[in-house]
Specification:
By secondary structure, this protein is of the alpha/beta class. The protein has 3 domains: about 80 residues, Winged helix-like DNA-binding domain superfamily/Winged helix DNA-binding domain (Arc Repressor Mutant, subunit A, Orthogonal Bundle), CATH 1.10.10.10; about 160 residues, Periplasmic binding protein-like II (D-Maltodextrin-Binding Protein, domain 2, 3-Layer(aba) Sandwich); about 90 residues, Periplasmic binding protein-like II (D-Maltodextrin-Binding Protein, domain 2). The chain is built from 10 helices and 15 strands. The protein has a 7-stranded mixed sheet, covered by helices on one side. It is rod-shaped and about 105 Å long. The two termini are about 60 Å apart. The C terminus is likely disordered. Keywords: DNA-binding, Transcription, Transcription regulation. Belongs to the LysR transcriptional regulatory family. One of its GO terms (biological process) is DNA-templated transcription. GO terms for molecular function: DNA-binding transcription factor activity; sequence-specific DNA binding.
Length: about 350
């Protein structure tokens, strides 16, 4: 029989002084209650109760065992209540992993506003441009940019989309000319990720809906898009960069958007987390907060998103040439708790 259940039965018998009374209180048969106590005595090799036809009494060993068992059961109940509370109230450390550039330019404001809303949760952010095993590495939530995670133990949902924007500095364009069609990129040094990191052939959709395929020649290799942005700002070539990275540069005129009649495929940004089963409140509320943050302006926020059927809400970080990335800095209270957030970067910058 279950040892913990036998302990609970023994305590109830001792408290009520009756097998019949304990059976009624626990909604068990008298035979089952008797068997639980007998099994305990057999396991311990000692008698716990003295039985007569009229009454029960504890033996000396029974009194000692009862005292210790009460403490064990009380501690167990306390642990269970603590775990239940953690699953229903946002509390504890929230481990998040995200790509470096997206994390620096788009995730930081979300984490700060979440920390202000839920002060009992301490975000622990790791930035890494690599595949992270959420379960093995102990992450609660992962953000994926242009990558898919296939695992029976991982749940993914689309968060939002961004776009790739062709751009250059005004000084570069004045010196080298302005590309008018995707084919013109072949005459310019380009700044984009190397082939193994998404810098392969570019497929543009033209104004008439037709496809134009070009394979630009990179001016310089870099495995980090922030570095490519810096090269673009230095006038080293034409950048093909994500909108969430260069929104402020476009808004200020430091970079000029190009090929406005052509569009590149959008970048899908996805949330990943281990299993919907018994999802802790800190994870559930953070995912809801992410979705709320990237919700398109004017679209109502859906309640209970994690349990709702159908497609999740999808937002766009920016249109091809009109990027509202400065909005990512909205509503960011400066709280002492926000400064407790720990960021560990484990990738090249």
């Amino acid at each position: 029989m279950n040892q913990l259940q036998s302990m609970r039965v023994f305590v109830k018998v001792a408290d009520l002084g009756s097998f019949v009374g304990a059976a009624g209180a626990l909604d068990l048969s008298t035979a089952v209650v008797t068997r639980h106590v007998a099994d305990l005595e057999a396991r311990l090799g000692t008698r716990l109760l003295n039985r007569t036809t009229r009454r029960l009494s504890l033996t000396e060993s029974g009194r000692t065992y009862l005292e210790r068992v009460r403490h064990i059961l009380d501690d167990l109940e306390g642990v269970e209540q603590m775990v239940v509370a953690r699953n229903h109230e946002p509390v504890g450390t929230l481990r998040i992993v995200a790509p470096v550039v997206f994390g620096l330019h788009s995730l930081a404001p979300v984490v700060q506003s979440y920390a202000a809303r839920y002060p009992d949760v301490v975000p622990d952010v790791t930035l890494a441009d690599r595949h992270a095993d959420l379960v093995e590495e102990g992450f609660d939530v992962g953000i994926l940019v242009a990558r898919h995670m296939r695992s029976a133990s991982i749940v993914t949902r689309r968060l939002t989309t961004a776009c790739m924007t062709v751009c250059a500095t005004p000084a570069y364009l004045a010196q080298h000319g302005t590309p008018a069609r995707p084919e013109d990129l072949l005459r310019h040094p380009c700044l984009s990720r190397p082939p193994e990191q998404g810098g392969e052939e570019r497929v543009f959709t033209g104004p008439g809906g037709g496809e134009v395929r070009v394979r630009p020649v990179n001016a310089i290799a870099a495995n980090n898009t922030e570095m490519l942005r810096q090269f673009a700002l230095l006038g080293m070539g034409v950048g093909i960069l994500p909108s969430y990275l260069i929104g402020r540069d476009l808004a200020s005129g430091r970079l000029v958007p190009l090929l406005g009649d052509y569009r590149l495929p959008p970048i899908e940004i996805t949330i990943a987390y281990p299993s919907r089963l018994h999802l802790p409140a800190k994870v559930r509320t953070f995912i809801d907060h992410l979705v709320e943050h990237f919700q398109p302006a004017g679209e109502p926020v859906r309640a209970s998103r994690l349990g709702a059927p159908g497609r999740p809400a999808v937002a766009s970080l920016a249109d091809a040439d009109s990027v509202a990335v400065p909005e990512l800095t909205r509503r960011l209270p400066d709280t002492a708790h926000a400064r407790r957030t720990r960021v560990a970067e484990s990738s090249p910058v």
